[in-house]
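Data card: per-record layout.
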Amino acid sequence: MTRKILVITGSRAEFGLLKYLMSNIDKDSNLELQIIATGTHLSPKHGLTVIEIEEAGFLINAKLDLNLVDDSNKTISQAIALGMTGFTDEFKKLKPDLIIVLGDRFELLPAAISALISRIPLAHIHGGETTEGAYDEAIRHSITKMSHLHFVGNNEYAKRVIQLGEHPDRVFTVGGLGVDAIKQTKLLTKKELEKSMNFEFGDKNLLVTYHPETLNYNNENYEILELINALKQLQNTKIIFTMPNADSGSKRLFEIINEFINENSHVYGYESLGQVKYLSCISFVDGVLGNSSSGLLEVPSMQKGTINIGDRQKGRLIADSVINCRPIKNEILSAIKRLYSEEFQSLLPQTKNPYGDGGASKKIVATIKDINLKGIIKKSFYDLP
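The structure for this 385-residue chain is written out next.
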């Protein structure tokens, strides 16, 4: 009897991480893949990236629209409420044996709660990490406590999940799914990428992704303006923006970034590049700037430098290829200067990614198809020795 595995995906970045895991589940004769697409996948403002799931050849069992009409706290809270009823209805129809979620996005919180109340085992990927500048931090740890299986990026995060009271027998160190994506994605050539993006690389090129710091909401506009004022000082440098996600405060970031793009012919913006173009772009730029988790989890595996700005990712393990700086114009410029220095560039070929060398997807599949799910719902709190 095949085991039904339901994967929930709510954003472009998360699908990029889950894609090869979903493919491995789909190929396994002992498993049946189910998919719910939700969140910004169904938002035209964010590129309607549900199309990317379908173009990858996956059958989507349900599309759960959370009505993300804007980025206000009210809309996000109402989206969570919609998710509660929507996920509960879909779980009743699909009757999965196991549900898989990845990370810390707000749309996953109602999925986890609904799974808990529906008494369906939940597997959580990338738990135990910390991001002190976003409310994702609290959501991630909440999902950990509602989950029954934990697939983490490294041993440090495994210890943290166990510290939260999860039994060590249910915590598996598999590495980062982003590393799998890099190793298995066939990247575009420079010419192919330029044609697909309607863009030509210059002598110097930087890729920028900046998301709201949801626990520092009042200062958000100041920080993005500091970044843009720093970028204005650069000479002979083309700048590629991938646009912010749907967190609280993203609307104003969109407006500020678009204004910068419209006023400068060397600055370009894309709602969503998709995984292949995004990874291909990293391979041809000089470095990645912003506060996206991708700069810490995936970019080091491509031997490229990352400038991690502000506190949004504060607390995550980082590679030697990551330069941390505060969202202050002069500090950002100093970080960019270091990025281009011969000393820093000479370190990049030896970079070791703390999230492993790949293989996470296969490790997860090997576990979920064989592990005994009988009685797994009832958990006891594990006290540290």
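Known properties of this structure: The chain has a mean pLDDT of 92. The chain has two domains: 3-175+359-370, 188-350.

See the next section for split statistics.
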